[in-house]
Write a structure and sequence with these properties.
By secondary structure, the chain is an all-alpha fold. The chain has a domain of 35 residues. The chain is 58% helix and 0% strand. The protein contains 4 helices and no strands. It starts with a helix and ends with a helix.
Amino acid sequence: MGAPFCAQVAQLGLLQSASARGPGDNAHAESFFHSLKAKLTRGVTFPTARALHRALRTYIRYYNATRLHSSLDYLSPLAFERRAA
């Protein structure tokens, strides 16, 4: 990550991902963002922030309600939670 990004993260009082395995492992979040970039944003320029926001909302709905996840017995997160309830 570049210095401007690191400075902005520090200014906001946030900690960057360390990508270390263990109790704080963020592999699921990293997997989500990889999928988001690969399926939605790679090679795409959004004309407005509103258009990007709309696309992100649509993708997140798809990711949670429709997309099958191998780590959840090939269920969507929503179906997995419903099954567990």
